[in-house]
Specification:
Pfam families: Radical_SAM
InterPro entries: BchE-like, Elp3/MiaA/NifB-like_rSAM, Methyltransferase_Class_B, rSAM, rSAM_horseshoe, rSAM_sf
Mean pLDDT: 90
Helix content: 40-55%
Strand order of the largest sheet: 3-1-4-5-6-7
Radius of gyration: 25 Å
Strand content: 5-15%
Shape: globular
Keywords: Iron, Iron-sulfur, Metal-binding, Methyltransferase, S-adenosyl-L-methionine, Transferase
Largest sheet: 6 strands, parallel
Protein name: Radical SAM protein
Structural class: alpha/beta
Cofactor: [4Fe-4S] cluster
Length: about 625
């Protein structure tokens, strides 16, 4: 009887797919090990697993849940179709966290399943942003409707089970719009992926969002229009639950994906709990967070970040011209604070990664080259990431251009912040695209990479970890023509994965060309690895390495900073300094130095051996 009961149970097939997108040759971007974990996939998997545990379809229905991140896993569409057929089509494919550049690929994946009569739903920033900022039909949303793909806008906590129930009952609705109802995050199912999925990312890093929402108004940002500007957050208990779930399967590294963790109202209770897990329970946490340029003004924030296990921070620096920042409504970024903020992170020995946007109205190839040189000389940034200013659907910039009828790139696949998607007042499209690619080579010169390694040795930043990132950031755009965050180890391609509409290559020629390209690329990488290892070893073991000092590491001072090119080369910079002085005169005796956080680049520190590559 027990055997008959088990055999009679139906099994709901839930396939969660995070699509990749196409490269310039039309092939899906996929790696043996991808760079960045998908928090959207982890979040929905956690919610789906909770639905399965609670048996939301009744006691006689079990769930088979599979998570596929296409950046590191090939989607076996024929195999999945056979799987659905063996279960009578009972289940659905959910396209998770789809961004604008992934939308064309997501539709191509959906087409095969819809042709076989399988239910498909799509969610993520593209559909949510378009429904939030546009008219509900713009930017190819009708393509979903024509195929019968259900659109899910908003966040899935507390809502996924109703979609699953509709699929099971054969009544999947064309639209689930929850954009006006942002759910709370306390006590809801937490993001989680089994280890077999996490191991397909570099460093086996998991991810979770400790909070959502950002109070700022940056016009190029989609997050504020999808996740809102009000801070919502997980409790410290939930964060601990996430850590322990993952530590039980041997995962200790996390990317905390909050767009701005420094504005999470519960940052301190979260850090305090992580400190306890690290210092008392012995869990060797390694964390990466995203913060703004004013985080150094929050008492104890940086010190607790270090104790909690933060090893890397991403900072939305965006630009060093205040006029550009003001036009993008990035008014919270004060260039007079940049050096203080960066030196404060150096004081903690934490690796800094800064985002830098190219294509603001005042930019030209010449000013971009000048600004990169200023950053190299005067700002103690470890890694600089370049992006093209892109009117992403869901942003205020896109909404303004759309309302004005301004021409924008028609192919959503190009909205990956590395392709030019609209006109610029001072640069042609080609000039803008060329300076984007050139920027990577301008910043990551052999000379400057040696400087970055010397700064790391002097400030306690793990030099081996930095060397690993320097390899990725200095070669990915040049060799693979994709942004390093979309990169990985060993590019994988298949002739069947070319974008529809482009000709299929002869398989023999395809594999021959792919093999030759792979051999050439890895020859270049081998040389680059050897060179960085030599530099790292020599610098780490050089006597007096801890005493290295240059202009960027020099403590902020009245006499020095006011003469920096950072604060004098543009009218906006000079105006920013004048404004700072005016405010200081009204509020009390302050100066550009405020309080130096790094004393002579820790000149008393002795040289230390190289840290292992983590």
């Amino acid at each position: 009887m027990l055997h008959s009961d088990i055999a009679a149970r139906r099994r709901f097939q839930l396939i969660l797919v995070k699509p990749s997108h196409y490269d310039d040759d039309g092939y899906v971007i996929r790696w043996w090990r991808a760079m960045t974990p998908s928090n959207s996939l982890a979040a929905v998997y956690g919610i789906a697993a909770d639905c399965a545990e609670r048996r939301v379809l009744g006691p006689d229905v079990d769930f088979d849940i599979e998570a596929i991140d296409e950046t590191n896993t090939r989607i076996d569409i024929p195999g999945l179709l056979r799987r659905f057929r063996s279960h009578g089509g009972f289940g659905c494919v959910a396209l998770i966290g789809v961004q604008s550049n992934q939308y064309p690929r997501a539709l191509d994946i959906a087409r095969s399943f819809r042709a076989a009569g399988i239910a498909v739903a799509i969610g993520g920033f593209h559909v949510s942003g378009c429904l939030s900022m546009l008219d509900g039909r713009a930017v190819e949303l009708d393509a979903c409707r024509e195929m019968g793909v259900a659109i899910f806008a908003g966040e899935a906590e507390g809502r996924l089970e109703s979609v699953i129930a509709d699929v099971a009952a054969g009544r999947l609705a064309p639209l689930y719009n929850h954009m006006k109802e942002l759910p709370g995050m306390d006590g809801v199912p937490v993001p989680f992926l089994p280890k077999r999925y996490i191991e397909r990312t570099l460093g086996s890093s998991a991810s979770f969002d400790a909070g959502r929402g950002c109070p700022y108004q940056c016009s190029f940002c989609t997050i504020i229009n999808v996740q809102g500007r009000k801070s919502r957050y997980r409790s410290a208990d939930d964060v601990e639950h996430i850590v322990r779930l993952n530590w039980a399967q041997g995962i200790r590294k996390f990317f905390i994906t909050d767009d701005n963790f420094a504005r999470n109202k519960e940052w301190e209770s979260t850090f305090d709990r992580l400190i306890q897990l690290r210092e008392k329970d012995g869990i060797p946490l390694g964390l990466m967070i995203q913060v703004d340029t004013l985080c150094h003004k929050i008492p104890n924030f940086m010190e607790k970040a270090k104790r909690a296990g933060v090893t890397k921070v991403f900072i939305g620096l965006e630009n060093i011209n205040p006029d550009n920042l003001a036009l993008a409504k990035k008014r919270q970024n004060k260039i007079t604070e940049y050096r203080k903020m960066l030196l404060a992170w150096k004081e903690q020995g934490i690796l800094t990664i800064a985002g830098y946007i190219l294509g603001f109205p005042a930019d030209t190839p010449e000013t971009i080259k000048r600004d990169i040189a200023i950053i190299q000389e005067e700002l103690p940034i470890d890694l600089l990431e370049f992006f093209c200013l892109t009117p992403l659907p869901g942003s205020e910039d896109h909404q303004t251009l759309w309302k004005n009828g301004t021409a924008m790139e028609a192919d959503l696949n190009s909205y990956d912040v590395e392709h030019v998607c609209t006109a610029h007042p001072k640069m042609s499209k080609q000039e803008w695209q060329d300076i984007y690619h050139e920027a990577w080579q301008l910043y990551y010169t052999p000379k400057h990479m040696k400087v970055l390694l010397r700064r790391a040795a002097a400030t306690g930043v793990p030099i081996g970890n930095l060397a690993k990132y320097l390899l990725t950031f200095s070669t990915t755009d040049r060799l693979e023509k994709v942004h390093p965050l979309q990169g990985g180890i060993f590019r994988l391609k298949h002739p069947s994965e070319r974008r529809p509409g482009l000709p299929r290559e002869n398989p023999w020629l395809f594999w021959l060309r792919f093999g030759c390209e792979t051999l050439v690329k890895h020859s270049v990488l081998t040389v680059a690895i050897g060179r960085l290892l030599i530099w790292k070893t020599v610098i780490a073991y050089t006597p007096g390495a801890g005493n290295y000092l240059d202009r960027a590491l020099t403590p902020v001072s009245d006499d020095g900073d006011e003469t920096l090119d950072l604060l004098t080369k543009t009218a906006g910079a000079r105006a920013a300094v004048a404004h700072f002085k005016k405010i200081a005169g009204l509020t009390g005796p302050k100066s550009l130095d405020a309080r130096p956080r790094v004393s002579a680049a820790r000149s008393s520190r002795r040289a230390r051996p190289a840290a292992p590559i983590a």
